[in-house]
Write a structure and sequence with these properties.
The chain is of the alpha+beta class and about 260 residues long. About 35% of the residues lie in helices and about 20% in strands. The strands form 4 sheets. A 6-stranded mixed β-sheet has the order 3-5-7-8-9-10, sandwiched between helices. It has a two-stranded antiparallel ribbon with strand order 1-2. Strands 4-6 form a two-stranded parallel sheet. Helix 2 packs across helix 3 (about 30-35). It is elongated. One of its GO terms (molecular function) is DNA binding.
């Protein structure tokens, strides 16, 4: 069903937002934002929950209302808690711990978008089957209910891992663009998670220090550190693609120069 069809169905049934929230198990705020047209791209699970209430078949019984902000100890959260948060709140779930995610900076978005475009073009030019993807996309890294991450850029070469709601399992390649608020998580917690989950290659891009830290988990024990003047080979493609970070920097140079003014 489209959002417009759901809105019309709501009027036909005479349901209030509160009734829909109770029947669907969704937070009231999420129901209001989706059916009110505020959230333009709701999660797949949210759409399915709304369709279960507003579809042609009526629910047989009222489900127990889900509490969107269950207070638990860090380490006890599960995917059911993760999915109860409104769609416009960005977060990650790692080993049962909820991590809030701040909005990315302009430099962050330009860098990740530029690199993703180069990787996508490489696949298109060479007829490859790997899928370069860019945030926001959920990754159920360990295929369990305790971890759901959102890398900035990723490549998945096993298309069976790509399902409607997320990437189910470890991607082959991941990039995280570091920020002050995420540096510790990306360089320690997620580094170890990616290594243990079976990610083959992991890049950490530090815009402040103009460094690229590359982990080739499949071959090397120690990382290689590049500057923003280097061409960095994509290891999972045997170096057939190199990302020219001098070119990357040219696209964000104006932001650095503005900071000096």
């Amino acid at each position: 069903m489209t959002i417009k069809e759901m809105q019309e169905r709501k009027r036909e049934l005479g349901y209030s937002y509160a009734q829909i929230a109770e029947l669907s198990g969704l937070p009231l705020g999420t129901v209001q934002k989706v059916l009110g047209g505020i959230t333009l791209t709701p999660r797949y699970d949210t759409i399915m929950a709304l369709e279960s209430v507003l579809g042609e078949e009526q629910p047989m019984a009222v489900r127990e209302s889900a509490r969107p902000y269950n207070v638990k100890k860090q380490g006890e959260y599960r995917l059911e808690d993760y999915y109860q948060y409104p769609d416009d709140i960005r977060m990650e779930l790692i080993d049962g711990v909820i991590y809030d995610m701040t909005s990315p900076t302009s430099a962050h978005q330009i860098i990740s978008g530029f690199i993703h475009s180069k990787m996508l073009q490489h696949v298109l030019n060479n007829g490859g089957k790997c899928l370069p993807m860019i945030a926001p996309i959920d990754v159920q890294l360990d295929c369990d209910d305790r971890t759901m991450v959102e890398p900035d850029v990723l490549i998945v070469c096993d298309r069976d891992k790509v399902i409607d709601r997320c990437v189910y399992g470890a991607p082959d390649f991941i990039i995280e663009v570091l920020s002050k608020s995420t540096k510790k998580k990306d360089s320690v917690i997620k580094l170890n998670k990616y290594l243990n989950a079976g990610v083959r290659e992991y890049w950490m891009i530090d815009p402040d220090k103009k460094k690229v830290i590359v982990y080739d988990f499949a071959h090397d024990e120690y990382p290689i550190i590049y500057g923003f003047d280097a061409k960095v080979p994509v290891g999972i493609w045997n170096g057939d693609l190199e990302i020219d970070f001098a070119e990357v920097y040219d696209h964000v140079r104006f932001l650095y120069e503005r900071q000096k003014e």
